[in-house]
Amino acid sequence: MEELKPKSLNFLEEIVQEDIASGKYPKGILTRFPPEPNGYLHIGHAKSICLNFGLAQRFGGATNLRFDDTNPVTEETEYVESIKKDVSWLGFTWAEELYTSDYFEDLYQFAEKLITLSFAYVDDSSAAEIAAQKGTPTTPGTHSPFRNRSVEENLALFRDMRAGKYADGEKVLRAKIDMAHPNMHMRDPLMYRIRHVKHHRSGDKWCIYPMYDFAHGQSDSIEEITHSICTLEFDVHRPLYDWFLDKLGIFPSHQYEFARLNLSHTVMSKRKLLQLVNEKVVNGWDDPRMPTISGLRRRGFTPASIRNFCERIGVAKRDNLIDLSLLEFCIREDLNKSADRVMAVLDPIKLVITNYPADKTEDLQIENNPEAEVITKRSVPFSNELYIEREDFMIDPPKKFFRLGVGLQVRLKGAYIVTCTDFKTDAAGNVTEVHAEYIPESKSGQDTSGINVKGTIHWVSVAHAVEAEVRNFDRLLIVEDASELGDDFLKFINPESLQIIPKVYVEPGLKSASVGQPLQFIRKGYYSLDLDSSSDKLVFNRTVTLKDTWAKEKAK
């Protein structure tokens, strides 16, 4: 047998391995996942979660969960709780739960230190004036008229800002670096702005809030984060990250960047996802069509499938578009091993077995999952009247149609072989009822009939059937790459992203199914019970089809 090669390290793992070998971090590796609580996490965040926690786990380190709550206008406790739930659901445990707001006093003191060192100043310029001062990537900026205020004046003004003496936008604190720097982020960036808004944790205690670029690196340093892993768009921010740490002379955390996840047929922008929710294009953040972790969970995706997906796409230094089909492959692979096979008829017609006693009910033992390590069975009631799929009968079947038509034979899953004898139609010519005769000696597991049939179909006993609603979900957008779509992206919503079948029939055992439980509706797809379900009405979400139907469409 060919010897398996050990999995090669990605570039971040190589960096960490070298740092450990050199003894650079004697206390061990410490990463962090720093979401802003201004929305629900999506599959892109899942990649970052798996990367940060996975990296630390691999090298015996730990990971902090730190909420970057520096913008009270958009942040809510609801989002904090949803983020914690998502990270835990994915299977990760954080070392410490922290908030950038925990460090507001520390960050303020850092800012005063930079003022004292003449590396920061209070600016009275308006937002438009500051933007004009920045210049362009090809032309240097110009100095603010307030750039040369004395240390004493800057300290007094900054303290007055903290004391609430100024209105929103009246003053800002800027770093004093270089208005001719080729990196626009180094041209006297903002450090603090005034916001007279109640904060979800600190209330009205503060009216000045640090900018991300100032808070990020210093928060990393306070926690002694060894490897601060960001998405690629923060590459140009790294010099500023390093500049603040260097000027303050504090623990030198280091930032590394990786390519963010772009997934086909959906949007990954929090702003656009919020728009979908607010305009009721979808039914909330956890709508199963959304790329949010809560949406994927409600749809029936498993933590293992998402972790496997993130592992398969790897860690790159260049942005690329990942086909949604890969995520679907990962969930099929997982559910094939874990999901019970059950029977549900989505487009029913009645099958009457004319030679089976009308007053008889038989409890048949049917395998739950032939792929499971331990094979278990369940009891399913069988009677003379069954629901079968409409597509499993044809009036005039073609050759190699291995289902039902007059004179054709088929095996009923876990039950008997039946021979179609007749059918009924309504005035419009639609088939309403199929008649057949069963072969008593052909019972599954006890077949002595000697008859071989090529087709097997699923069924549900009419007398025992449970009504349910099925929601079939598909791609949110009709276009593959949504990264270039502007605010008119709603024009590209897939009109068939949700198809509701209000009345289907499922076997009676599904009345005891639990929310989120993975199930395979035989021959139809993978489903899970939705949280909208009640004792009076079962609702099932399609997680994924049995096969990649989109691959066929793309090949046309």
Give a description of the structure.
With 556 residues, the protein is α/β, with parallel strands linked by helices. It folds into 3 domains: 11-258, 3-Layer(aba) Sandwich (Rossmann fold), CATH 3.40.50.620; 264-338 and 469-555, Glutamyl-trna Synthetase, Domain 2 (Glutamyl-tRNA Synthetase, domain 2, Orthogonal Bundle), CATH 1.10.1160; 344-458, Ribosomal Protein L25, Chain P, CATH 2.40.240.10. Helix content is 26%, strand content 24%. It contains 13 helices and 27 strands. It has helices at 11-21, 43-58, 77-89, 104-116, 127-133, 151-162, 212-223, 238-248, 270-278, 293-299, 303-313, 324-338, 549-555, and strands spanning 30-33, 62-67, 97-99, 120-123, 172-175, 190-194, 208-210, 227-231, 254-258, 261-263, 320-322, 340-342, 344-345, 348-353, 362-367, 377-382, 385-389, 409-412, 417-425, 431-438, 456-457, 460-461, 466-473, 498-506, 518-521, 525-529, 538-544. The strands form 7 sheets. It has a 7-stranded mixed beta sheet, covered by helices on one side. Strand 25 (518-521) and strand 26 (525-529) form a beta hairpin. Helix 2 crosses helix 11 (303-313), helix 7 packs across helix 8 (238-248) and helix 11 packs across helix 12. It is elongated.
Overall tally of domains: 3
CATH homology superfamily name of the largest domain = HUPs
Largest sheet: 7 strands, mixed
Strand content: 15-25%
- Determine Rg (CA atoms, Å): 31 Å
What is the correct CATH architecture of the largest domain?
A: 3-Layer(aba) Sandwich
Mean pLDDT: 94
Number of strands: 27
Broad structural category = alpha/beta
Major beta sheet, strand line-up: 12-25-26-27-23-24-13
Which consecutive residue ranges, at least 5 long each, have pLDDT under 50? 1-5
General shape: elongated
State the CATH class of the largest domain. Answer: Alpha Beta
By DSSP (H or I, 4+ residues per run), the number of helices equals: 13
Do you know the CATH topology of the largest domain?
Rossmann fold
Our measurement of the CA-to-CA distance between the termini, rounded to an integer number of angstroms, reads 39 Å
Give me the oligomer status. Answer: single chain
Give the % helix: 25-40%
